[in-house]
Each structure stands twice: as structure tokens, then as C-alpha cells.
Amino acid sequence: VENLFYNMIARRKTFQNSADDYGKIVDLLSRMAIHHNKVSFSCRKHGAVKADVHSVVSSSRIDSIRSVYGVSVAKNLMKVEVSSCDSSGCTFDMDGFISNSNYVAKKTILVLFINDRLVECSALKRAIEIVYAATLPKASKPFVYMSINLPREHVDINIHPTKKEVSLLNQEIIIEMIQSEVELKLRNANDTRTFQEQKVEYIQSTLTSFRSDPPVSPSPSGQKTQKV
């Protein structure tokens, strides 16, 4: 695509610099690559030698995640599945992967596909973050991939101007079921959490220096000086 919106000045002004726009393109293609694992994706900046996104056709979702997001992400994922066929109309199937307690990141990554369409759902994201906040340290955020399939008439795609965020029929019930399953998985996998150990040597000289400090005498004004 060249000279995009060349005759629409207002739309063209909304573009940021090329580095930010390229980062958004890489993020979008990375999410598409792990969901559509039957298609090969490749994204390379003009003039660069190495591709920033490169995936091959794979029968395994984990292999696709490994090729796009790296080994450190793929080795710390757990399979999660939820399905419901309620007579009241709450019908959906969800399968995906969530990070375990050993995964450490500073930003939440939620790759959400509903009926094979890349979307966002802020309510679902908040519900998952609440579960992880009780399990992971405060500085750590989860990696979550979910694919939800439900009747098309149960999805409202007109709540956002760009249609990137959706609302679901029986959304509270669906989110509660997914949240419960994620919490159950994390609790059952909590015994596999690993920690790094570091040997700490006992230093006697440090304690001796504290004991040899002279006592603090009161100041002439009658107020005691505080020792820091």
C-alpha cells in the first residue's frame, strides 16, 4: 500500500510516525499468525534482512505461539477449555491457552478471537486480570489466547466505531464461566511454580560496625538528635 489517504488530509494526519505504525502492524500480524496456523505469515520492514514475524503452517497452536512469541512464552502455557449449551440461550465454546505462575511479564497480552474474528472485550480482560492478580506478583501480567465460537446473532459488533470491540449476549454468564475455569487451572498448577535461589553470605563486620557506634548525646538545646 503506497500513498495511503493521499487525498484525505484529515485521515492522513491521524497517522503517527512509521515506527509506531509498523509496531502496530507487527502486533496485528502476530495475533493473526497464532490463530490461523494453517497459513504462513511473514512481515519484514523495508530494507531489513530479518523478518519480525515469520510463521509456518503448523498443526499445533503451541508451535505457532512458539514461532511468533518465543520459547519463553510457549513453555509456560496451559490448555483451557470451556463449553456451554444452556437451554436459556447461553451457548458457546471456548478453547485457548493461558500462562502459568512461572510466566513473568509487565503487560497483559490477550489475543481474543470470536467466530474467527480478532476483537477486544474489556470486560473479559478485566475478569482475567483479577484472577491473575491473586496468583502472580503485582509486576507480572498474563499471556492469554482464547478462541470463542457462539451463534453470530449473539455478538454485537456495533459498540465501537472501528468495530474492534464487541459485546456478547449473556456476556456476564460467559465471562464468569471462563473466569472460574481460569482460576481453577491456576490453582491446580500452583504447585509447579519454580523459584530461583541465591546464596547470601553472612557478613559479621556489618553487625560489628553497628555495635561500635558511639551513643548519641543530647544537643545543647535540650533536643535529642535523631540518628539516621
UniProtKB/TrEMBL annotation:
It is found in: Nucleus. Residues 219-228 have a biased composition (Polar residues). GO terms for biological process: mismatch repair. GO terms for cellular component: MutLalpha complex. The keyword Cell inner membrane does not apply. Keywords: DNA damage, DNA repair, Nucleus. Residues 209-228 are annotated as: Disordered. Pfam families: DNA_mis_repair. InterPro entries: DNA_mismatch_S5_2-like (IPR013507), HATPase_C_sf (IPR036890), MutL/Mlh/Pms-like (IPR038973), Ribosomal_Su5_D2-typ_SF (IPR020568), Ribsml_uS5_D2-typ_fold_subgr (IPR014721). GO terms for molecular function: ATP binding; ATP hydrolysis activity; ATP-dependent DNA damage sensor activity; mismatched DNA binding. The keyword Cell cycle does not apply. Residues 65-187 form the DNA mismatch repair protein S5 domain. Coiled coil: none annotated. Its main location: nucleus. SUPFAM superfamilies: ATPase domain of HSP90 chaperone/DNA topoisomerase II/histidine kinase, Ribosomal protein S5 domain 2-like. Belongs to the DNA mismatch repair MutL/HexB family. This is MutL-like protein 1. It comes from Barbarea vulgaris (Yellow rocket).
